[in-house]
Amino acid sequence: MSYVEINNIYKSYGKDQVLDNVSFEIESGECFGLIGPNGAGKSTLIDIITGLTQYNSGDISVDGHVVPQDVVKVREQIGLVPQEIALMQELNATSNLEYFGGLYGLSGRMLKERINEGLEVVGLTEHTKKAVKTFSGGMQRRLNIAAAILHRPKFLILDEPTVGVDPQSRNKIFEFIQYMNQEYGTTVLYTSHYMEEVEALCERLFILDNGQQIGYGTQAKIKQLVQDTVKWFIEVEQAPLDFEEKLSTRLPGVQQVVSENNSFHLIVDPVEFNTKELMTLINEENIELTTLNKEALSLEESFLQLTGKTLRD
Ligand SMILES: Nc1ncnc2c1ncn2[C@@H]1O[C@H](COP(=O)(O)OP(=O)(O)OP(=O)(O)O)[C@@H](O)[C@H]1O
Prior knowledge:
It is a single chain. The chain is of the alpha/beta class. The protein has 11 helices and 14 strands. Strand 7, helix 6 and strand 8 form a beta-alpha-beta unit. Adenosine-5'-triphosphate is lined by residues 13, 18, 36, 38-44. Pfam families: ABC_tran. InterPro entries: AAA+_ATPase, ABC_transporter-like_ATP-bd, ABC_transporter-like_CS, P-loop_NTPase. GO terms for molecular function: ATP binding; ATP hydrolysis activity.
């Protein structure tokens, strides 16, 4: 039995089918990614796992405890970092953590130790005295994360934890997740709009779009789903201003062009696309070609192919 089992979950709000037969499993000690564009149903699914929202049909268990029947046992295992910052703005970092620790039933020396550890792992030990309202968005997010792990949860759920976060805080959050996962064997469910984050942190992932499964499995498996799509990298000596447009419109099978100075990445349908036509265009334009390579798709590009959307939609 897997640590988290999600089977055939359906959820609707009125006539809107928000989750449509969603099933996946998360193994104990795994860092698992849940990816999807805005409104895909990610937060709804997290609310269902944590027993905050009811579902219409299907079944869910965490460590063998059924949701919602055994929700108290499930919640004991969970540390949740919600999308919205949930802190008391007038209080300082330590007082906030004392409050949350109290909710988990921690007190005395144990609470003090956990607060110190929490502040340490999110890199806030130097900022314990000032009111939280003076913190940057990234620092507040990190404090929110420290609050979620005071009771040493076996299962850490992070709902888009890097939104509105500066690069330094983002790196700290990454290091923290890897630390919890490797040091304590914490199982992690990580949701994000940023495919590169999931690519770095999670070996397996689930892609959700309009409440439905689009892809599920290892990164390699997701990329395989779109194996019919190919990417070409072109570099030229001096590209004319309209070269990108000509690549998009003049060559059959070109689905997307991403350019940077004299470099161009083309995502193409390999059946329609033909390098001969590319060479003809380059000759016609009198351009000197310096590089022409076939490339592997990134996870982000695979996602685009699967859903027709970018994650930042
Ligand atoms: N309480 C609610 N009542 C009605 N509809 C809701 C409710 N909560 C969410 N929805 C709808 O359910 C769908 C999924 O929303 P959800 O917040 O789960 O998506 P998401 O993938 O987390 O999106 P985002 O990345 O924007 O947070 C959306 O269409 C949303 O409008």
